[in-house]
C-alpha cells in the first residue's frame, strides 16, 4: 500500500519528501504548527526539536537529553502557542521561544495526561484502584484548579467486563482552546473554554440506539482475554464473565479535524464507527464531508492553499507539501488496500 502511495505522489509531481528522522511514526502529538507556515517536529530518538520553514527547509534543531535548561528526557509531545513551544516529557514541560531558546521548566504536579493551552493546563487523571476518571483545569501558575468532569472506567471491574463502561476520550481543538467531552451513556457533548475552565455550550442530538450485538460482544471479550494472557502469561485472570448492555453507546469518539471542526462518531456496525454529526467552533451543525477521520491523522496543517501531509515508511516519517485540491485524491489512494 505504501509503495503505491509514494508512487502516486511522484506521479502527481510532488516535491521530494523530507525525512524528519523519527524513531517512532509521526503522529500529531509530535508535530506543532508554528508562525508564518513554519512547523516543529519532535525527534524522540535524538531528544531534539527540528524547526522547518513552510518550504520544508530545516531552520534549526535544538534540545538535548537531560533535565537541565533546554533539555528533556524521553519526550512524549510538543505544542506551540503564543510564541512558546512546550516540549513534554514524563516529568516536565520544557519551554522554548519560537527560535528554540530555552525559557523555563515546569514540573508536573502529579502523574496524569497533561495538555498546555498557552494560558492554562488541562489534566486527565485516572485512579487505578477505583477506576475514577477526572478531567481537571489548572491556571497557568497552578494556583487555581477546577474539576470539569468526573467519570468511572467500568470496562473491567474484578474480572467482569462491561463493553459499554469505558469513558469516551476528550478532544482538544488544534490550538487547545476548546475541549470537547462526551457522555458515554447518551448523546451529550460539553464544549469547554480551556483558557477560562468553563463550559461554553452543550451539544445534543436525537440518535437512533443501535441494539447491542451479544455474539460480537462475547467474541470481543474472548479476544481481549486471549491477548492479555499472551502479553502476561503468568497473570491470573478472574474471568468472572461480562455484562452486556441493551444498546451500544451513542457516542464512541469525538475528535477535532485539522480545520477545527468537531466530529462526533457513532456506530456503523460492531467494530466500525462513522461520523454522525459535525460542528464548527461556534457550535453550529455543518454538513459531513465524507469520512473526515483520515484528515485527523494524515493532514498535519494547512497554510496558504497548501496542505502538509505525513507518510510513514518503516521507522521514518516523510512530510509532503501539496496543493489543497490534490488532498482528497491522495488520501483516497492512501486508504486503498
Automatic annotation (TrEMBL):
Top-rank lineage group of the source organism: Bacteria
Supply the name of the protein: 6-bladed beta-propeller
Which organism is this entry from? Acanthopleuribacter pedis
User: What lineage, starting at the top, does this entry show?
Assistant: Bacteria, Pseudomonadati, Acidobacteriota, Holophagae, Acanthopleuribacterales
Amino acid at each position: 500500500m505504501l509503495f503505491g502511495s509514494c508512487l502516486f505522489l511522484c506521479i502527481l509531481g510532488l516535491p521530494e519528501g523530507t525525512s524528519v528522522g523519527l524513531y517512532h511514526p509521526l503522529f500529531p502529538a509530535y508535530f506543532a504548527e508554528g508562525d508564518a507556515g513554519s512547523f516543529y517536529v519532535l525527534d524522540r530518538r535524538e531528544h531534539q526539536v527540528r524547526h522547518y520553514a513552510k518550504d520544508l527547509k530545516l531552520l534549526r534543531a535544538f534540545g538535548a537529553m537531560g533535565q537541565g535548561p533546554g533539555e528533556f528526557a524521553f519526550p512524549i509531545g510538543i505544542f506551540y502557542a503564543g510564541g512558546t513551544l512546550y516540549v513534554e516529557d514524563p516529568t516536565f514541560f520544557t519551554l522554548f521561544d519560537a527560535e528554540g531558546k530555552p525559557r523555563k521548566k515546569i514540573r508536573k504536579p502529579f502523574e496524569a495526561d497533561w495538555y498546555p493551552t498557552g494560558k492554562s493546563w488541562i489534566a486527565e487523571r485516572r485512579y487505578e484502584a477505583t477506576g475514577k476518571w477526572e478531567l481537571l483545569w489548572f491556571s497557568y501558575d497552578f494556583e487555581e484548579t477546577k474539576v470539569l468532569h468526573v467519570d468511572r472506567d467500568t470496562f473491567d471491574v474484578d474480572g467482569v467486563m462491561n463493553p459499554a463502561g469505558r469513558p469516551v476520550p476528550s478532544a482538544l481543538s488544534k490550538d487547545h482552546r476548546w475541549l470537547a467531552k462526551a457522555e458515554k451513556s447518551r448523546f451529550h457533548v460539553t464544549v469547554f473554554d480551556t483558557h477560562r475552565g468553563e463550559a461554553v455550550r452543550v451539544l445534543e442530538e436525537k440518535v437512533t440506539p443501535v441494539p447491542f450485538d451479544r455474539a460480537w460482544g462475547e467474541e470481543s471479550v474472548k479476544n481481549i482475554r486471549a491477548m492479555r494472557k499472551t502479553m502476561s502469561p503468568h497473570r491470573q485472570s478472574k474471568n468472572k464473565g461480562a455484562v452486556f448492555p441493551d444498546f451500544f453507546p451513542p457516542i464512541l469518539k469525538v475528535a477535532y479535524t485539522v480545520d477545527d471542526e468537531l466530529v462526533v462518531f457513532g456506530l456503523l456496525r460492531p467494530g466500525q464507527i462513522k461520523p454522525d454529526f459535525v460542528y464548527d467552533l461556534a457550535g453550529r451543525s455543518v454538513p459531513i464531508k465524507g469520512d473526515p477521520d483520515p484528515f485527523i491523522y494524515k493532514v498535519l496543517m494547512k497554510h496558504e492553499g497548501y496542505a502538509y501531509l505525513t507518510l510513514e515508511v518503516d521507522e521514518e516519517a516523510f512530510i509532503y507539501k501539496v496543493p489543497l485540491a490534490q488532498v482528497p485524491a491522495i488520501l483516497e489512494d492512501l486508504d486503498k488496500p
